[in-house]
């Protein structure tokens, strides 16, 4: 049996004991690691480098979780690690450590890259078996992870779980009431009130948090846009219906291509441009933004929230002086709150240079760091 065959079978990793049982020795393992054929993930745990590098950070974390769950007893995978096992998207989360909750009443600790939590766990109510591992249920995993991170990060996690229909807002609200005195519970309950399962990506969830933080009107999500004959043009990620304005978050997946999509990135970009033109023809403005990390030049000052708000809040979101376009004729009324002027911010009070807007003749394009 070759290294290639041994490391790509099973649960995504291979142990030193498995290598030795196939006739290899420690020198063979060291040579494979030195040649970058193998990667050492933990003591005595290796992965095939070529296959492992193709996985996302969350998928890599799941393989690490398997290697721990297969060895430890009397623990349940929990918190961020359980979210990764359930396929829930996360943002701003450190996945270098594996989180477990003790089931035997042992003390909490952090050792060998494993965080041991202590908490009351009811096996029948709080745990499920996934891929041979005991894992906390999605709702509990999402709420526990939300208590440990920022509101923005929590919104991404909660939106993803709701979008995947792994839980409901009522269940999350009940957990918040049950664990009201947990450290970080207040932050998690606040994020639960802002969560919306209609958000389809972490970028859309982060955008909603940004809108709220910068004082923009609340947007409706997944707005259906029809032409004059009532035929569907498409769905826009965001819609400020009162202001006849639409918004789209452009992630790498949209233009980078999907493995199951036979179209080239150029075809996808052209089709997206045609769709946007058709939406604009319905008397609706359009703003687009994406993820970027612009580099600062030496000596360049950080952009203050005042500057961000002055560029983001523009007449593009002001009510238009024409009749309602076709896409506004819907059965249910708009859900956004009324327009309010931007909040006054003391210069230098906080520095969050995370938004950059560029204006062109056709619309607005921005970048979310």
Q: Tell me what portion of residues adopts beta-strand conformation.
A: 15-25%
Helix content: 25-40%
Please count the helical segments: 15
Largest sheet: 6 strands, mixed
Query: In order across it, which strands form the biggest sheet?
Result: 10-11-12-13-15-14
Distance between the termini: 47 Å
CATH architecture of the largest domain: 3-Layer(aba) Sandwich
Helix vs. strand class: alpha+beta
> Which ranges are low-confidence, i.e. pLDDT below 50, for 5 or more consecutive residues?
294-367
Q: Give the integer mean of the pLDDT values.
A: 78
Report the C-alpha radius of gyration, rounded: 24 Å
Shape: flat
Kindly provide the name of the CATH class of the largest domain: Alpha Beta
User: What is the fold named in CATH at topology level of the largest domain?
Assistant: Endonuclease, Chain A
- The overall number of domains is 3
- How many beta strands in the DSSP annotation? 15
What is this entry, summarized?
It is built from 15 helices and 15 strands. The protein is of the alpha+beta class and 369 residues long.
List the helices and strands and how they pair.
Layout (H helix, E strand, L loop, with lengths): L2 H6 L5 E2 H6 L4 H9 L3 E5 L2 E4 H4 L4 H13 L5 E3 L1 H7 L12 E5 L6 E3 L2 E4 L5 H4 E4 L2 E4 L1 H9 L4 H13 L5 H10 L6 H10 L7 H12 L6 E7 L5 E9 L4 E6 L1 H5 L8 H16 L4 E7 L13 H8 L42 E5 L4 E5 L1
Parallel strand pairs: 5-7, 12-13, 13-15
Antiparallel strand pairs: 1-3, 2-3, 4-5, 6-7, 8-9, 10-11, 11-12, 14-15
């Amino acid at each position: 049996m070759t290294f290639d065959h041994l490391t790509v079978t099973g649960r995504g990793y291979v142990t030193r004991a498995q290598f030795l049982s196939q006739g290899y020795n420690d020198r063979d393992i060291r040579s494979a690691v030195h040649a970058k054929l193998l990667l050492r993930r933990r003591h005595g745990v290796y992965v095939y480098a070529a296959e492992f590098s193709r996985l996302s950070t969350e998928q890599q974390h799941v393989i690490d979780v398997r290697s721990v769950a297969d060895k430890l007893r009397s623990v349940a995978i929990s918190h961020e690690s359980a979210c990764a096992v359930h396929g829930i998207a996360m943002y701003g989360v450190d996945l270098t450590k594996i989180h477990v909750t003790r089931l035997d009443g042992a003390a909490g600790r952090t050792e060998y890259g494993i965080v041991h939590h202590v908490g009351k766990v009811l096996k029948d109510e709080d745990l499920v078996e996934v891929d041979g591992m005991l894992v906390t249920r999605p709702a509990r995993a999402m709420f526990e992870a939300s208590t440990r991170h920022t509101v923005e990060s929590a919104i991404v996690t909660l939106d993803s779980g709701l979008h995947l229909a792994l839980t409901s807002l009522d269940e999350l609200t009940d957990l918040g009431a049950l664990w009201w005195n947990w450290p970080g519970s207040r932050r998690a309950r606040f994020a639960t009130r802002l969560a919306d399962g209609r958000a389809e990506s972490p970028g859309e969830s982060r955008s909603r948090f940004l809108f709220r933080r910068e004082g923009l009107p609340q947007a409706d999500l997944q707005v259906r846009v029809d032409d004059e004959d009532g035929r569907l043009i498409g769905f826009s990620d965001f819609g400020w219906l009162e202001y006849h304005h639409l918004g789209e978050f452009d992630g790498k997946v949209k233009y980078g291509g999907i493995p199951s999509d036979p179209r080239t990135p150029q075809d996808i970009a052209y089709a997206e441009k045609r769709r946007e033109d058709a939406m604009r023809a319905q008397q609706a403005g359009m703003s687009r933004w994406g993820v970027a990390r612009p580099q600062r030049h030496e000596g360049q000052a950080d952009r203050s929230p005042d500057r961000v708000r002055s560029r983001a809040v523009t007449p593009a979101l002001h009510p238009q002086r024409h009749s309602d376009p076709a896409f506004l004729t819907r059965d249910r009324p708009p859900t956004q709150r009324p327009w309010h002027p931007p909040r006054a911010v003391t210069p230098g009070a906080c520095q969050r240079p995370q938004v950059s807007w560029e204006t062109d003749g056709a619309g607005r394009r921005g970048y979310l760091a």
